[in-house]
Specification:
Largest sheet: 10 strands, mixed
Number of helices: 11
Order of helices and strands: HEEEHEHEEEHEHEHHEHEHHEH
CATH class: Alpha Beta
Helix content: 25-40%
Structural class: alpha/beta
Number of strands: 12
CATH superfamily: Aldolase class I
Shape: globular
Radius of gyration: 20 Å
C-alpha cells in the first residue's frame, strides 16, 4: 500500500517503538579488545602516540586490562607481542617463554572465564618486519612455504600456553591447513582457528605498526596481503580457509569493507569477525578531539554498522568504551 496508508515513521515515534523493531543488536559480548604486551616493560604501560587511549603494556598491566575487559562483559582479548629481541626467523614467536606465551598463561590464570585469542604472525618478531621468513633472492621476497612451517609452530606454542583461539594474520597461502594439521597432531584438536582470511594491504594500518613496532624494513606487504580493489578474491580467500579447516573467518579492515563482510558471510555461513583497525580508531579519536563529531554516537554507529553488514564479532580498540556506553542503555 502507498502513502498515506503506508507511513514508515509510525514505528520511529518513540525509543520503545524503535527498540521493538530494531534489526541489529550490539552487545559487549560481541566485542574483542586488542592488547599490546611488551617484553621490555617491567611494569606499567606506555602510550601509543597515534592511538589515544591505547598503550603498550607490561605483563602485569595486560592482566589488569584483561580483568577490566572481563568485568565489562567483553567476549575476549586479542594478544599481540612486542619481544625484546628480533631475528631474521622471528624465533621469538614460538618461544615457549615468549612474551605472548607468558601473557596467555598470566591472563588465563587471573581471568579464566575470559577468552584469549592470539595473533599468529612473525612480523613483530622478525628484524626485517615482514610476516614470514625471507627467501635467498634478489630482491628479497617472503618465502611462503618456509613461513607456513614456522607459523604452525607458533600456533601450537600459543595453544600449549592456553590460548582459547589462534588467529593467523600473515596471509601466507596454505597456513590454515598447516596450522590445523599441527594443532591436531599435537593434541589441540579442540583449539579453534580464527583466520584473517580477507586481510587487505591497507593504508589504515599505520598506527598499529607504531604500536606493535612491526613496520617492514623494506618494501611493503602487497605481495601477500590483498589488493583493496578486489572483492571476489576476498570471498575466494575465505572459502579456501574454510576448506583448510578455519572455524571463523575475518575481514580486515572493517569500516571500508562492509560489502565484503556481507559477501563473506553469505558465502561461508561461518562466524565472521571484522577488525575495526587502528587507522579507523585514530580517525574517530582525532575528529572527536577536534570537536568535529560526537565520539560515543560515532563509535556505536560504526560498530552497529559492522554488525549489520554481517559481522558476528568485532575486534576494536573502542571495545571498553563501547561496553560502558552500552551498559548505560540497559
Amino acid at each position: 500500500m502507498a502513502f498515506p496508508q503506508t507511513r514508515m515513521r509510525r514505528l520511529r515515534a518513540s525509543a520503545r517503538l524503535r527498540g521493538l523493531v530494531r534489526e541489529t543488536e550490539l552487545r559487549a559480548g560481541q566485542l574483542v579488545l586488542p592488547l599490546f604486551v611488551s617484553e621490555t616493560l617491567q611494569s606499567g604501560s606506555e602510550p601509543v602516540a597515534t592511538m589515544p587511549g591505547v598503550e603498550r603494556l607490561s605483563l602485569a598491566a595486560a592482566v589488569e586490562q584483561a580483568g577490566e575487559a572481563a568485568a565489562l562483559g567483553l567476549a575476549a582479548v586479542m594478544l599481540f607481542g612486542l619481544p625484546a629481541e628480533k631475528d631474521a626467523q622471528g624465533s621469538g614467536a614460538w618461544d615457549e617463554h615468549g612474551v605472548v606465551q607468558l601473557a596467555v598463561r598470566a591472563v588465563k590464570q587471573a581471568v579464566p572465564e575470559l577468552l584469549v585469542i592470539t595473533d599468529v604472525c612473525l612480523c613483530e618478531y622478525t628484524d626485517h618486519g615482514h610476516c614470514g621468513v625471507l627467501a635467498e633472492s634478489h630482491p628479497p621476497r617472503v618465502d611462503n612455504d618456509a613461513s607456513v612451517e614456522l607459523l604452525a609452530r607458533t600456533a601450537v606454542s600459543h595453544a600449549r600456553a592456553g590460548a582459547d583461539v589462534v588467529a593467523p594474520s600473515d596471509m601466507m597461502d596454505g597456513r590454515v591447513g598447516a596450522i590445523r594439521e599441527e594443532l591436531d597432531g599435537e593434541g589441540f584438536a579442540e583449539t579453534p582457528i580464527l583466520a584473517y582470511s580477507a586481510k587487505f594491504a591497507s593504508a589504515f594500518y599505520g598506527p598499529f605498526r607504531e604500536a606493535a613496532d612491526s613496520a617492514p624494513a623494506f618494501g611493503d606487504r602487497r605481495g601477500y596481503q590483498m589488493d583493496p580493489a578486489n572483492g571476489r578474491e576476498a570471498v575466494r580467500e575465505a572459502l579456501l580457509d574454510v576448506q583448510e579447516g578455519a572455524d571463523m573467518v575475518m575481514v580486515k579492515p572493517a569500516l571500508s569493507y562492509g560489502d565484503l563482510i556481507a559477501a563473506v558471510k553469505r558465502a561461508t555461513s561461518l562466524p565472521v569477525a571484522a577488525y575495526n583497525v587502528s587507522g579507523e580508531y585514530a580517525m574517530v579519536k582525532a575528529a572527536a578531539a577536534a570537536g568535529y563529531l560526537d565520539e560515543r554516537s560515532t563509535v556505536l554507529e560504526i560498530l552497529t554498522s559492522l554488525r549489520r553488514a554481517g559481522a558476528d564479532t568485532v575486534i576494536t580498540y573502542h571495545a571498553k568504551d563501547a561496553a560502558r556506553w552500552l551498559a548505560e542503555h540497559t
